[in-house]
Amino acid sequence: MESKRSSKAAALTLAVIGTALILGSAQRLRAQDLNTDQERILKGSAVSPVPLNMSEKNWVMVFLGSYWVNTIGDCNGCHSSGTQASLFLYPYATGGNPYFNQPTKVDPTVYLNGGVQFYTVGTPTGPLSYAGPVIVSRNLTPNYAGLPEGGHTLSEFVQIMRTGIDFDQIHPTCTQAQLNTINNPGSMTLAQLQAAVNNCIPTGVIPGTTFDNEPDGSLLQIMPWAAFANLTDYDLEAIYEYLSAIPCINNTLPLAPAGAPDELLNNCGPANAVPAELPAHNPNSILKLGATGRRN
Prior knowledge:
Elements: H1 2-47, H2 59-72, H3 75-78, H4 148-151, H5 154-163, H6 176-183, H7 190-196, E1 204-205, E2 212-213, H8 225-228, H9 233-243
Antiparallel strand pairs: 1-2
Helix pairs in contact: 1-2, 2-9, 5-9
């Protein structure tokens, strides 16, 4: 009997010790995470290249989002049209191109305004070898109401990043009727065909290969949402908060695929109804704003 009691007591003691070790480790990890978050927040405040509208914003989340957008994500690398002076190749101001061994300076007039042309993702089909539209990166700047990517809510943004859903449906998968048109275009040019089939993506086996190419046109293509899907809800909310604080840009470059809605355009309101403002405070004070981080 005593032996059983001793065994139970020993087991209970080990369980208590184990729990204490786990809780102690968790507390140490949390403290480390907090320090890391502080470093990221301060770095985010330092690297944002544009004036920010901080009215009714969570400052902590804005600058944490800036960290993700401007460092790890390099979102501007894929979501800037580039400048006219650089033949639309680089998003940097004159004299600020790091690849030319110059001190980095992003051109704020093209920051996250979209317009990078990638390539087609469909299977070359029909006599014109139609492979779908050229994929163009979207304008991520907020509209006049402060909703990123021209009007998406936080819940929509999270859904986009988690699942890749394309709410704009710019390049749906081709239907059989559209494939019939692609295979029998008559006298249409490639641009006319593209508009006639609503910029759909043809799928199937690529001729001369064993590759069965079936991208889903209801999902964003090229955009690495499958990687961003692994971010926490907290991080995605921070990215959204930052994108809602940057200036609105109406990108009028004629880069949208023929016949597609122009997702580079943006409604910035009359004379930028929501003006941008630079934070006029010591960045370290951001960390003293508390859990909400709000300053009105």
